[in-house]
Design a protein that fits this description.
Strand content: 25-35%
Number of strands: 10
Structural class: alpha+beta
Strand order of the largest sheet: 1-7-8-9-10
Largest sheet: 5 strands, antiparallel
Number of helices: 4
Radius of gyration: 18 Å
Number of domains: 2
Shape: globular
Order of helices and strands: HEEEHEEEHHEEEE
């Protein structure tokens, strides 16, 4: 089943690569998450470092917390073994059913968790428990890096990823671009955020793909 899922994801990605939406005036592509650095964030005063790590939780199996993958990182520092142990501990503590940033890897019995970790000016390490805590760390959503992190944390999945952004009077508009194999449709999903991270509205635009056979699974 996992192999089938990977094949479907690759096919969908191939279609999406061939049909990239044209950017509007004032619209910009997001960088890759790991390309953003500390200067690209306006974090709460006193925070010196931020990192997001991910790991998978398979139903009925023990979690291997040593296999943590870095998703965001504000600098290229090297962690001591003590810091690595602390990160592993925080990741383990956050592995609970009501945690806010996780999603199911359809159709597998697997959940992927994303843990936000930061270090303050005293060198102490903390993790973020919920969306309100994340907003306290980010402050106002006023940079593309913060917008990408926030969008991924509150409104994203394995199949729908932020593609581009555009400034608006109230904050930002984020475009998610993806392909639905069951209907052979490309989807432009527009999400409007204010600077407090609130979703103001959503719209969608569908474009049917030529030379495509719908896949049902």
């Amino acid at each position: 089943m996992r192999i089938l899922t990977l094949i479907l994801i690759l096919i969908a990605a191939a279609f999406a690569k061939e049909f990239k939406p044209k950017l509007e005036s004032g619209e910009h592509l997001f960088k890759k998450p790991m390309e953003y650095r500390f200067k690209d964030f306006h974090l709460r005063p006193g925070i010196k470092f931020l990192e997001v790590v991910s790991y998978e939780v398979k139903s009925g199996k023990r979690v291997d917390y040593s296999d943590l993958k870095t998703v965001f990182k504000t600098d290229s520092r090297t962690f001591s073994q003590k810091d690595k142990n602390n990160i592993t501990y925080l990741a383990r503590v956050m592995a609970k059913k009501n945690y806010f940033w996780k999603y199911w890897l359809h159709p597998l019995p697997v959940e992927r968790y994303f843990i936000v970790i930061y270090i303050d000016k005293y060198g102490k390490m903390f993790s973020v428990d919920d969306k309100k805590d994340l907003l306290k760390v980010l402050g106002k959503i006023d940079t593309p890096a913060e917008l990408l992190l926030w969008t991924k944390a509150v409104d994203s999945s394995e199949f729908t990823k932020p593609y581009s952004y555009k400034k608006t009077k109230s904050g930002y508009r984020v475009r998610e671009f993806y392909f639905i194999m069951q209907s052979c449709n490309f989807v432009d999903r527009f999400i409007y955020f204010n600077q407090n991270g609130k979703i103001l509205k959503e719209t969608k635009k569908f474009t049917h793909a030529k030379k495509c056979t719908p896949a049902f699974f």
